[in-house]
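Kindly inspect this one:
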Amino acid sequence: MQASDILAKLVGFDSVVGTPNAEIVEWIGAYLKSFGATIDILVGPEGDRSNLFATIGPREKPGYVLSGHMDVVPANEAGWASNPFVLRVDGGRLYGRGTSDMKGFLAASLAAVPVLAASPLMRPIHLAFSYDEEAGCRGVPHLIGRLLELCQTPLGVIVGEPSNMRAILAHKGKSAARVILKGRSGHSSRPDLGLNAIHAAADVLQAAISTAHSLAQGPFEAEFEPPYSSVSVGTIHGGQAVNITPDFCKLEVEARAISSADPAALLTPVYEAAAALERLGFQVQWEELSSYPALSLERAAPLADLLTELTGIEPLAAVSYGTEAGLYQRAGLEAIICGPGDIGRAHKPNEFILTDELAACQAMIEALGRRCLA
């Protein structure tokens, strides 16, 4: 199968984050088995979704991991010109949810498998396909936790997020949380008898804003845009009607951290502001939504040199979005980002990838295979 044919099949699976993914896992597993790959399907604690780990070549030797996620964000936005879960071809553009982020990388990897499987690899190439990356990298930690049961310590991990086929050395870390405030409702004419959860949320909101302003003063890491850590509130919901004292308010807040900062620690002032409301009679819940570390790979690292050779392009120092690469690095592995497509097309109507980008990625993976012959 050509990469575009495989992509059409993958896009056709409605593998939206947070939903069961047995169909896409089973199809990929069957495809890989047809070329003699060793397959492990790793069921996550949710019970209805799995990671997939596959090996081409000798598992007893150290090799390279091609890492990608099978889930996609929902496609409920207005503006789609066609069914987002049916691949639409228009010239050199292939449209559909996940084409850039990141089923294009999966398709290119799978399209390279026949060549890899027919080669006398002395070092293996592994495929590590995860679930629920779009929910804050929830699936891949379960795979990483079992990695050394499945293979020898890898020489490096290539995370195929859309990067225009230019290797990326670093990204920010992230931590996100939900704050739920419960007060006491009543008629708005007697605010003295109620506990206004929306008013209370202002303290939490102000803590987030103050923290964001403080972080903008540094410390700085110039390779990032912006070159400092950030905190922001992304959603706020509460209340029933203008004449009812609101007894409920929910906020979602996130931190994006430069490599020298702990993203979870950046949210401490927000957490403390929320916890302080308990003394005023509010019930407060703090729920961690996601957390992953930053990636920071030295330019002199062997993996960075390898990707420069394979792509012919000097690596980019850093991006501000996050990936699973930081989790691999935290586990002690060299990791780098490099994949087809453009992050600017992701999470939007009419997401697309170019056929030339798929071809370039497949060529890179086949070249990696040639490096594993000796």
